Amino acid sequence: MSMETLNRTGFDTGPTDNWIDAIVYGRASQDRKGLMRSINDQVTDCEAWCQPIRWRVARVIKDSDRSASQWRKKEREGFEEAIALINSGRYGGFVTWEPSRAGRDLEIYVQLRKACQRAGVLYLTHGRVYDLSRSDDSFMMGFEFLRAEADANTMRERQLRTVRLNAEKGRPHGRLPYGYRRVYDEYTGVLLRQEPDPHTGQIVRDAARAVLAGKSVWSVAMRLEDAGEPTPMKPWVDAPRGWDTNTLRQVLQNPTIAGKRVYRGEVIGDAQWEALISWEDFQRLQRLFADPGRRVKGGGGTPAKTLMVHIAKCHYCGRPLKRAVRRRKGKADAVKYQCQFRGCYKTTISQPGLDAFVEEAVLTWFERPENLSRIAETNDGDDWLAQSAAAEGRIAALRMRLDEAAEQYSAGALSLGMLTKVEQTLRPQIEEAQRALIPPISDERVRELVTSGDVRAAWADLPLAERRTIIKVMFDVRIQQTTNRGQNAFEPERVLMEPRTR
Q1: 420, 493: one domain
Q2: Reported confidence tier of residue 36, pLDDT bands at 50, 70, 90
Q3: Burial of 51 from C-beta contacts in 10 A (0-12 / 13-18 / 19+)
Q4: How many angstroms separate the CA atoms of 485 and 425, rounded?
Q5: What pLDDT score does 384 carry?
Q6: Residues 285 and 151 in one domain
Q7: The domain that contains 8 carries what CATH number?
Q8: What is the pairing mode between strands 93-96 and 20-27?
């Protein structure tokens, strides 16, 4: 061999026509900053192994921040690409720094072995070449992948123990919750404490205070969005979603902000960090979020034009009514509320008539002293969450009994008269249990209205959005189908209006 064919490292650099084209694959489980330093080191070692054995590195594939265990949550796009290239038959070698870089799961090894055997591809790892078509090499690689899987299982068990111990002691663990910051020892890097962040912590306090005072979650979220506040998203997300109702609700529904430690979705005790809001205020927030009467579908953040749009519901399908304008010769002829659900379309009612009727019924109800006392009684609702959970269980059990009776009637084992008696017995019990699901009235605007000297004057001063909120909180309004087809007159007897107090 001439000196021209040797480079200064002593490796053969002669003609490369008979060299093997190889795929180099590198992977790291955690690379949140996207630096991929450990992967680059892997690739450098793999390239150094290839040259002495006359392998040409034709493709380099990397999977950053990707686990290879059976509990992985992200797909490994790079590894799937490597398998596809092996199956293509254009390459003769596959290279990883160690078997665990390819996978920590025996199923991955089986997939890799089949691909290499079909395409006649050799596997280079730890600086040694394996031919997976040979039984001894296949066995050795199987043992290496089995050991990598066992290591992954051991690491996971340690992590679970650490998480459980930290939870039992109220220590922080995992992702940093919004509203807090963590302080580390500048020399050892050990976590010292988790404490409220001066800026984001105040955002959480202000948001909770605003929602409890009666502001909508949407308006508070839009205020943060307009102010340009970063959302509590992972810092490596390129295009995070802006503030919206779901984002803000997730922050305010996390018991962490009330100084509680959560483990597997359940509060297990007090945490070691300072609370941003009191536990009582946190529970009040959850009562607000749990009340379906306070949420109106179809609004989309657009201000409502009329009082009862998306609040009044169809008596038959239960969906909120939408506003519909009938036009003749380009001019508005009549405005109505309609059920526009494709499977129903049963309800239509005059918009001016319903708005005026409901408004008068609301004011009349608030002016009665006995009703004001009912509101006051519902304000003591610290045990509502526990009571509502028990009520939900009772409702489920009663409905199951009712369903069983219906099945027996269908099978001929129960008479129609007996089924009717069962329904007459169980229906009132279900309705009584459902009343326990109604949360206490904690909306500040309702309290201000009922404590004013003149309810009607105070109501007249309220903007439309405030009136709609009070009606949502206090009343359930359903509209029955008309019996007078072709008549445009408002029919008050079709309006079923019930107060939402217990």
Answers
A1: no
A2: very low
A3: middle
A4: 36
A5: 54
A6: no
A7: 3.40.50.1390
A8: parallel
Residue 398 structural domain:
382-439
Exposed/middle/buried for 106, CB within 10 Å: 0-12, 13-18, 19+?
middle
Q: 263 in helix, strand or coil?
A: strand
- As a whole-number percent, the residues of the chain with pLDDT over 70 amount to 80
Q: Mark out the alpha helices in 334-379 (DSSP H runs).
A: 351-366, 369-378
So what's the pLDDT on residue 5?
38
Is the domain of 8 the same as that of 87?
yes
Do 320 and 310 meet the contact criterion of CB atoms below 8 Å apart? yes
Q: Which of 233, 267, 290 is the last residue of a domain?
A: 290
Note whether residue 257 is domain-resident: yes
Specify whether 340 is located in the same domain as 415. no
- Per-residue pLDDT band for 380 (boundaries 50, 70, 90) equals very low
Name residue, tokens 């009514």. 321
Number of domains in the chain: 4
> Would you say 309 and 297 are in contact if contact means Cβ atoms under 8 Å apart?
no
Q: What is the largest CA-CA distance in the chain?
A: 109
Span 44-87, pLDDT tens digits? 999 999 999 999 999 999 998 888 887 777 888 999 999 999 99
How many CA atoms lie within 13 Å of 313's alpha carbon, on the beta-carbon side? 19
Distance of CA 306 to the CA centre of its chain: 32
- On whether both 328 and 277 belong to a single domain, the answer is no
Pairing of strands 180-184, 93-96: unpaired
Q: Is residue 381 a contact partner of residue 442, using CB atoms and an 8 Å limit?
A: yes
d(CA 381, CA 373): 15
Radius of gyration over every alpha carbon of the chain, rounded to an integer in angstroms: 34
